[in-house]
């Protein structure tokens, strides 16, 4: 009799990652468009850590994820930043000028485009450029940093080679870990 040890996952790590990223973006869009009570910070931290752990599994499980790991790691960081920042955002605390309303709709639209690309397992590319009026509206409603982060991800080349220093020590051979200490 032969016993083979296997780990059983309900879905592949990549499928779980796409779903988790989409769930975080759904929450972010909800907080951007509706006045919702913020989620507890411990939950935000737990979700962020779960994304980081899934990222490690995706690197081990999916060749495409490894090939485009710099983009996907930036995507995970961007989604985490958007999710945690918009969790505390209250759209009713800012004057509802037409420019701010239109800007928030445009930002929600860009986040939706990112969400659809992630759902299909594609690296999102954007040609969105913030106009002067959008930049003023972003500053007025404290969303300027989110815009810059989203723009950087949308303009990043998905084929950027991974930086050697981006790899976690967990992914290095054990001999290397002991040799460097």
Provide structural commentary.
This protein is mainly alpha-helical and 181 residues long. The protein has one domain. The protein contains eight helices and no strands. The chain has helices at 13-33, 41-61, 63-67, 69-87, 98-119, 132-140, 144-155, 174-180. Helix 1 (13-33) packs parallel to helix 4, helix 1 runs antiparallel to helix 5 (98-119) and helix 5 (98-119) packs across helix 6 (132-140). The longest helix is centred in the middle third of the chain and has 22 residues, at 98-119. The radius of gyration is 19 Å and the shape is globular.
Low-confidence stretches: 169-181
Total helical segments: 8
Shape: globular
**Structurally, how many domains make up the residues?**
1
For the residues shown, what is the average pLDDT? 85
Estimate the helix proportion, in percent: 55-70%
Strand content: under 5%
Key terms for this structure?
single chain, 181 residues, mainly alpha, 64% helix, globular, disordered C terminus
Write the layout of secondary structure elements.
Elements: H1 13-33, H2 41-61, H3 63-67, H4 69-87, H5 98-119, H6 132-140, H7 144-155, H8 174-180
Helix pairs in contact: 1-2, 1-4, 1-5, 2-4, 4-7, 5-6
Short description:
The chain has 8 helices and no strands.
């Amino acid at each position: 009799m032969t016993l083979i040890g296997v780990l059983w996952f309900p879905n592949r790590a990549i499928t779980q990652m796409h779903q988790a990223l989409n769930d975080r973006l759904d929450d972010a869009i909800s907080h951007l468009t509706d006045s919702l009570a913020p989620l507890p910070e411990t939950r935000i931290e737990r979700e962020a850590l779960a994304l980081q752990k899934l990222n490690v599994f995706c690197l081990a499980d999916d060749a495409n994820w490894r090939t485009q790991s710099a983009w996907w790691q930036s995507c995970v960081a961007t989604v985490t930043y958007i999710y945690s920042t918009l969790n505390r955002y209250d759209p009713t605390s800012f004057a509802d000028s037409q420019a701010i309303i239109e800007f928030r709709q445009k930002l929600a639209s860009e986040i939706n485009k990112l969400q659809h690309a992630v759902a299909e397992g594609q690296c999102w590319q954007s040609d969105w450029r913030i106009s002067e009026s959008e930049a003023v509206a972003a500053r007025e409603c404290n969303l300027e940093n989110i815009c810059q982060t989203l723009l950087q991800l949308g303009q990043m080349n998905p084929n950027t080679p991974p930086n050697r220093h981006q790899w976690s020590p967990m992914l290095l051979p054990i001999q290397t870990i002991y040799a460097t200490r």
